[in-house]
Amino acid sequence: MDNPLYSVAQIRAIEQAAQSQLRPLGTSGPSPLMRRAGEAASTYALEVLGGLPTGRILVLAGPGNNGGDALEVAANLANLGANVDVVHLAGTAPSPETGHALARAQASRARFVSDVADCNGCCLVVDGLFGIGLARPLAGQARALVEWTHGMACPVLALDVPSGLDADTGSVVGPDGVAVRATHTITFLGDKPGLHTGDGCDHAGRVHVNRLGAHGLHTEAAHARLNAPALFAGCLAPRRNNSHKGTYGDVAVLGGARGMAGAGILAARAALYAGAGRVFVAAVDPGPGLDPLQPEIMFRDAAGFAFDGRTVVAGPGMGDSAGATHLLSKVIDGTGPLVVDADALNLCAASPDLAARLAAHGGEVVITPHPLEAARLLGVTAAVVQADRLENARELAERLDAVVVLKGAGSVIARPDGEVALNATGNPGLATGGTGDVLAGLVGTLLGQGWPAWEAALAATWLHGAAADRLVAGGAGPIGLTAGELPRAIRAELNALVADAALA
Ligand SMILES: NC(=O)C1=CN([C@@H]2O[C@H](COP(=O)(O)OP(=O)(O)OC[C@H]3O[C@@H](n4cnc5c(N)ncnc54)[C@H](O)[C@@H]3O)[C@@H](O)[C@H]2O)[C@@H](O)CC1
Ligand SMILES: [K+]
């Protein structure tokens, strides 16, 4: 299944094509698309509420066409018998379709009020202040209304995009911006990346897509897509009976600096539970020679270790010593599959020469930066990276000629040719030390089994998040979820996926 995500520019093009298909040039009257948006959103609102409510519904309608959608919703729900209050921030020049919607709402039983202070509580807020036309931070009454919604305990349904959120980037439009925190978003014509990454994950809530009947118009290649098992199912294969540990790859974690041995062990455990044939920790400093809980992991001195022919996961607990730098440069100059994480990324950021050699690496490469590591590699701040996660991940993938997993809410997986996927599995339980080490070990295992970098990054990111979701569903989090719990849950998710793929 494909899950395309469209940029605002692409949605505008789709909207234009749909408008001219549904309403030939020169004709006027209500917009069929706005009518459809209003109908879809009214139906969805009743679904969210579980039927026609007895309480009041508050509709916030802005000056543009997003406000027009909201006025259609107000008219529809009021005509069905709901008690609807409307706060309308009228603009100076509403579009003809919004004018029609306003007339419909005014002719209905909906009550127009000048401020939310006139409303006595409500069972649903419908946010139709701004959609894809948002051009600057919210201010004045719009800002006050949004801040007021933050105090509401009832469901908040955003139309198209939560007001205040950038639909392309998933960041709240600022500086010092605010945005609606919706429990549900119904988005029109096509799904949008900003609903699934960065701040968007907290502001959009559950996302429901309605194409408004504009099928067949989505001809332009999507800007990005949502990650899903279908994107890497071709690499999932059950184990052959006639196989042995050599069949499933050697993974070597280059880490183990003094005081940071745990990071390498977590990456190694993840590799083991994800099915690597043999797992090594190649330690840059003397340290533990055994993981008592996982004695299958083999510990070696990195200085004399033969990295050739093995997949290397460089970085977890590696430190930045001269010895670590030398070993990193050695594996970068090798030709095997490579995962670059944590300290290894920081060393590349500090050395243009190392970064250039990484870009020239002969084998498959996946890098797994968090926003600050990505910022160091790009020579910007973490805030700049977070302001446009998709574009910065793309830029990094192109510069380093590697597949990038930019971690954080709605991880961005980017390829050097500009292809991007957003990952929707996972939860805030992953915001704890060591989970990145686990992800790196998981990516390394899949690379070590011959997966291409893109599919390995997609699958690892999906599985890592799904494992965290499984743990939370079982009561282990999100508060207090530990990285060490992830490998077993990853094993369960991976086996379930392989079993599903075998049945398909
Ligand atoms: N044209 C149509 O027939 C359709 C429009 N649709 C809806 O229309 C929306 C886009 O409509 P618009 O292009 O009118 O854009 P919006 O309704 O998102 O808002 C644009 C208006 O708000 C102003 N504005 C932007 N930022 C502001 C700010 N921070 N403070 C105050 N004013 C601000 C703009 O100058 C403009 O007047 C979509 O998100 C969707 O909800 C959908 O219903 C599909 C059909
Ligand atoms: K909105």
Automatic annotation (TrEMBL):
YjeF N-terminal domain ranges (all copies): 11-220
Domain YjeF C-terminal as annotated: residue spans: 228-497
Names of required cofactors: K(+); Mg(2+)
Keyword Lyase: yes
Role played: Catalyzes the epimerization of the S- and R-forms of NAD(P)HX, a damaged form of NAD(P)H that is a result of enzymatic or heat-dependent hydration. This is a prerequisite for the S-specific NAD(P)H-hydrate dehydratase to allow the repair of both epimers of NAD(P)HX.
Binding site for K(+): 66, 127, 163
UniProt entry keywords in alphabetical sequence: ATP-binding, Isomerase, Lyase, Metal-binding, Multifunctional enzyme, NAD, NADP, Nucleotide-binding, Potassium
Binding annotation for AMP: 407-411, 436
Name the record gives this protein: Bifunctional NAD(P)H-hydrate repair enzyme
Superkingdom, natural source: Bacteria
GO molecular function, one term: metal ion binding
Similarity annotation: In the N-terminal section; belongs to the NnrE/AIBP family. In the C-terminal section; belongs to the NnrD/CARKD family.
Oligomeric form and interacting partners: Homotetramer.
Cofactor detail note: Binds 1 potassium ion per subunit.
Record-listed E.C. numbers: 4.2.1.136, 5.1.99.6
UniProt catalytic activity: (6S)-NADHX + ADP = AMP + phosphate + NADH + H(+); (6S)-NADPHX + ADP = AMP + phosphate + NADPH + H(+); (6R)-NADHX = (6S)-NADHX; (6R)-NADPHX = (6S)-NADPHX
Record-linked PROSITE patterns: YJEF_C_2, YJEF_C_3, YJEF_N
Any Pfam family the entry gives: YjeF_N
Protein's UniProt keywords contain Nucleotide-binding: yes
Positions bound to (6S)-NADPHX: 65-69, 131-137, 160, 263, 317, 370, 437
Coiled-coil annotated residue ranges, if any: none
